[in-house]
Amino acid sequence: MSGLRVYSTSVTGSREIKSQQSEVTRILDGKRIQYQLVDISQDNALRDEMRALAGNPKATPPQIVNGDQYCGVWAGGGGGSVGRELW
C-alpha cells in the first residue's frame, strides 16, 4: 500500500480519541497533505492491520502510516512523535 494513511474509528466512546483524530485530520487538511482515512470500526482486519503496523497489539487510533512505514501515534501538543515524520 502506498500513500499516507490515518487509522481512525467512527465508533468510539472516548472523547480523547475523538479529539486526537480531529486534530490529526485538521492539521493534515490545513497543510494540504493528502491522506486516506481508514475506519477500523468497519472491519476487524483493519484494526489488526493497524496494530501490526504499530507493533502494539493494544494500539488505538489515531495511528499514522506512510506506505508500509509506521510514522507514529498522535501524542498531541507539538505534533508528538508524528511531528518529526510528517511536518
TrEMBL record:
Q: Where does this polypeptide localize?
A: Cell projection, Ruffle membrane; Cytoplasm, Cytosol; Nucleus
Residues passing through the membrane, by range: none
Q: What is its main location?
A: membrane
What are the protein's UniProt keywords? Acetylation, Cell membrane, Cell projection, Cytoplasm, Glycoprotein, Membrane, Nucleus
Q: Which SUPFAM superfamilies match?
A: Thioredoxin-like (SSF52833)
A GO CC term?
A: ruffle membrane
Transmembrane helix is among the record's keywords: no
Annotated function: Could act as a modulator of glutaredoxin biological activity. May play a role in cytoskeleton organization.
**Family assignment from sequence similarity:** Belongs to the SH3BGR family.
Q: Specify the protein name.
A: SH3 domain-binding glutamic acid-rich-like protein 3
From which source organism is this entry?
Pongo abelii
Give the lineage. Eukaryota, Metazoa, Chordata, Craniata, Vertebrata
